[in-house]
Design goal:
Elements lengths: L2 H6 L23 H11 L8 H14 L3 E5 L2 H17 L13 E5 L8 H5 L3 E5 L10 H10 L5 E5 L8 H10 L3 E5 L7 E4 L2 E4 L6 E5 L12 E5 L2 H11 L22 H10 L3 H18 L5 E3 L7 E2 L6 E4 L7 E3 L4 E3 L8 H11 L4 E2 L15 E3 L2 E2 L15 H8 E3 L8 H14 L2
Helix pairs in contact: 2-9, 3-9, 4-8, 10-13, 11-13
Bound molecules: pyridoxal-5'-phosphate.
Length: 438
């Protein structure tokens, strides 16, 4: 529906438009950021070296509980170098014109942002997508075990913690150990989230063999951009530092023995991050309040929130999401870039809710479209708890088999989760959602 049609709809009578945009998740600045940016400029460290970089590497490694943190230009850069390190460890150094994963398969999270798993392709590997479980919306250990039965030669897993909720790492690490597989952990969305591993609480970003976080503008804290590689291995940290600065050797001239990248973080960006780090816990607390307010405010509707296991994890609640019960789904269809939905009393759909809150000035988003459904990866293998997730439909059988990712995408949406949204503004979003079901 168009904005005008929505605003004319009697169901929404009496609800006021927001006087400013309510964001999905936008930067929340506190003032300290300016101080450290000014410090970089005043001291002329306007480069990819400087005190802000040293300081954020120290502070983040202390916060997360790892020995080394290497500041990079983006979470994607961290993921690329983490994936390359894993490839080199497993399969040896590659020629300059070849990726370290050439001809190799890698098990990957399916419901995630594509930056998690694109580095597998950068390194010439083949991503095999693993379906999602319903308890945390992350990689399903049962499907992963199935994938190892089908492809026993695989030795690398790339996984993300969706929307700040830790996945089932205890189970996944056991499976990885049993199959001598390495893990690249994408904690881009989950900085500050905790997980209970073997009875001990640890931070996401320490759960893989190679770990990454992001300071993108929409993340729990931001530098406008930026990312980090986290590790306990000095050798790996040194290697990532080297690769990220064009792989320069210690010669008086530019000497190169390995392919390099320009991936190091800027000292200006690091200044913004330095100003944000003291507020990380405050941001998490605000996100948790938002999640709880939605949970209570939507409790009388046929919907549920993005789930987590409180015994095993404490998410950072980066994004609050909701899933519409199957019986309350109004008819809707999606093409590759557009969608069509019908209104149906007592029911609704992600499209209707997102269009409606947008008409009032609030931003939401569909649940991330699974990688196995993305046109670019449609020819890649996909494994569910039932085994091969491709080619299951048939003119003679009903249904298409298990596909949890597709189901979450069909029925789920991310709600406005901005730290700066007031309780009144959030209540208005909740009220609009209620009216969608009328
Ligand atoms: C799960 C996930 N992985 C990786 C990234 C990439 O991080 P960056 O934008 O810092 O490159 C993002 C978000 O941007 C993300 O949400």
């Amino acid at each position: 529906m168009t904005k005008e049609e929505i605003l004319r709809d009697p169901r929404f009578k009496g609800i006021e438009l927001f006087d400013h945009r309510i964001w999905l998740s936008s930067p929340t600045m506190h003032g300290d950021e300016q101080r450290w940016v000014d410090d970089a400029i005043a001291t002329n460290w306007v480069s990819t070296v400087g005190r802000n970089i040293d300081e954020i590497e120290k502070q983040i490694s202390e916060y997360v509980g790892c020995r080394y943190a290497v500041g990079l230009s983006a979470g994607t850069a961290a993921l690329h170098l983490a994936t390359k390190l894993a490839g080199e460890k497993l399969y040896g150094q590659a020629r300059p014109n070849e990726g370290t994963l050439a001809g190799k398969k890698v098990f990957c999270s399916d419901v995630t942002f594509d930056a998690s798993i694109n580095p597998v392709a950068y390194e010439d590997g083949e991503a095999i997508f693993i379906d999602t479980e319903r308890d945390t919306w992350n990689m399903d250990p049962v499907a992963l075990e199935k994938a190892f039965e089908m492809y026993p030669d695989v030795h690398l897993i790339v996984l993300a913690h969706l929307y700040g909720t830790p996945g089932k790492m205890e189970e996944i690490k056991k499976i990885a150990d049993a199959h001598r597989a390495l893990i690249v952990e994408d904690a881009a969305e989950s900085l500050g989230a905790k997980y209970r591993l073997g009875g001990k609480w640890v931070e996401t970003g320490t759960l893989g063999d190679y770990n990454c976080i992001s300071f993108n503008g929409n993340k729990i804290i931001t530098g406008s951009a930026g990312g980090m590689f986290l590790t306990d291995s000095k050798e790996d940290a040194d290697k990532v530092r080297k690769w990220s600065t064009q792989s320069r050797e210690a010669a008086p001239w530019y000497q190169h023995e390995e392919i390099g990248y320009n991936y190091r973080i800027s000292n200006i960006v690091a200044g913004v991050i330095r100003g944000q780090i003291p507020y990380l816990d405050e941001h998490i607390a605000a996100k948790k309040r938002i999640y709880e307010r939605y949970r209570k405010g939507l409790a009388d509707l046929p919907v549920s929130m993005n789930p987590y296991d409180p015994e095993k994890s404490e998410p950072n609640f980066w994004l609050s999401c909701m899933l519409i019960d199957e019986k309350a789904m109004a008819p809707h269809v999606r093409g590759e870039q557009d969608e069509l939905y019908a209104h149906c009393s007592g029911k609704s759909s992600p499209g209707e809710i997102l269009d409606t809150i947008a008409a009032f000035g609030a931003e939401g988003r569909p649940v991330w479209k699974p990688m196995h459904m993305q046109p670019i990866y449609r020819t890649h293998k996909y494994v569910t708890t039932e085994g091969n997730g491709r080619g299951r439909s048939n003119a003679y059988i009903k249904g298409t088999g298990v596909d949890v990712g597709a189901d979450l995408f069909r029925r789920g949406l991310c709600l406005p989760s901005d730290n700066k949204m007031t309780a009144e503004e959030q209540d208005r979003v909740i009220e609009i959602i209620h009216r969608c079901f009328r």
